Amino acid sequence: LKTQMQAPGGGGETSVTTHFARVYRARGVAGLYTGFAATLVRDLPYLVIKWQVYTTMQLVLGQTHSANLLSGAVAGAVAATLVTPADVIKTRLQVTGAKVPLVAVMRQLLDEGGVPALFRGLGPRLARIPVYTAVTLATFDLVKGLFVLSNEAAVGVGSG
Q1: What is the pTM of this model?
Q2: Contact status, residue 66 vs residue 114, Cβ threshold 8 Å
Q3: Is residue 12 predicted with pLDDT exceeding 60?
């Protein structure tokens, strides 16, 4: 719904409930999930790639706070770049609202602009994703470390 509302010709609604009702009346429940399969095709590989790159970078750089920030930024950049074609396809599906196979959308994009068409919007993605991935993953490891220390203190580990 969000992507459809933001797209040109998105119905002009400013209310989510108004847009929700319009989409539901026009296409039923399925219309509310336009692009869901494409979202999974983007998000599941993104998560796997992000965590693999992050843990690999930690092995290379160590696990200091600054190394975790850099590892997170690299992980976000690599994962975002690799799944950008799926993101472009997902966005195209959501904006058009069309019920077409993912492969058909990919072929259409390739016809429009070749392989570069599959990477439209990569610059803006790389301006934000590495930053928030760096902060998120480094914060995750920081909080995880605090919980480990707290648990070790609670059970008396290392006080022997």
Answers
A1: 0.74
A2: no
A3: no
